[in-house]
Amino acid sequence: MRKIMVANPKGGCGKSTVAVHLATWFARSDEVVYLGDLDRQQSSRRWLDGRPNSATTIRHWQTADEAFAPPPGDCNVAILDTPAGLHGKPLKALLREVDRVVVPVSPSRFDMLASQEFFAELAETKAVRKERVGIAIIGMRVDGRTQASKQLVEFLQQFDLPLLTCIRHAQRYVIAIDTGLTLFDSHAAPGADGEQWQPLLDWLVSRR
Ligand SMILES: Nc1ncnc2c1ncn2[C@@H]1O[C@H](COP(=O)(O)OP(=O)(O)OP(=O)(O)O)[C@@H](O)[C@H]1O
Ligand SMILES: [Mg+2]
């Protein structure tokens, strides 16, 4: 079973957007996918409630009182959306349970500064140091060819964390999510936007 957590204590950086995209991408490959939502806002949960019956199946995974609960036995892929502000003991407890952590970061100076402590915390966590848990950083709402993405790469160098890919700002993300869908549900090829996700998807299915 793959257990993937999407996290960054900075609010609004794209955690739920990434979580639901990953869930739909795995569901498209006939995996039994469970989506858990530790956030009180329940954005991913609500998205799942609004998902059309005709779309690929993603199951809800009930997590107990904002804490981790093991995914059901038939689960192949568990995706966990997490709240803003996650740090300290709850973060450490989650890092003991998952295999991969995806961290969306927005290229603004404020967002990078807000994520700084989180990256330092990740780096000193035993599971990360021992490479039991893999960390992937993705730029969210950023064009990989811009100065902003270069600044993001430079910022991440101090933590020895590579920037895996950049997902551009596009209204299609907002529209799809409003309808319980994502880019990966579309019958039309996701095109250049799909290509931006590919390094992350390849990393998630790779052996480490
Ligand atoms: N690539 C993108 N292009 C355009 N809009 C985006 C993109 N990614 C996210 N958004 C929008 O940005 C807003 C915040 O995204 P999202 O809710 O995924 O962030 P979050 O980190 O889960 O927030 P919170 O910390 O409040 O849980 C949403 O309105 C979402 O639709
Ligand atoms: Mg969210």
Task: Map the helices and strands.
Layout lengths: L1 E5 L8 H14 L4 E5 L5 H7 L9 E3 L15 E5 L6 H8 L4 E6 L3 H16 L1 H4 L4 E7 L6 H11 L5 E5 L3 H8 L12 H15 L3
Parallel strand pairs: 1-4, 1-5, 2-3, 2-4, 5-6, 6-7
Q: What would CATH call the homologous superfamily?
A: P-loop containing nucleotide triphosphate hydrolases
Which strand-content bin applies to the residues? 15-25%
Work out the radius of gyration. 16 Å
Count of domains: 1
Low-confidence stretches: none
Largest sheet: 7 strands, parallel
**Widest sheet, order of strands:** 3-2-4-1-5-6-7
Tally the helices: 8
Per DSSP E runs of 2 or more residues, the count of β-strands stands at 7
pLDDT average, as an integer? 92
For the termini, the CA-CA separation is: 14 Å
- CATH level-1 class: Alpha Beta
* Helical fraction: 25-40%
CATH architecture: 3-Layer(aba) Sandwich
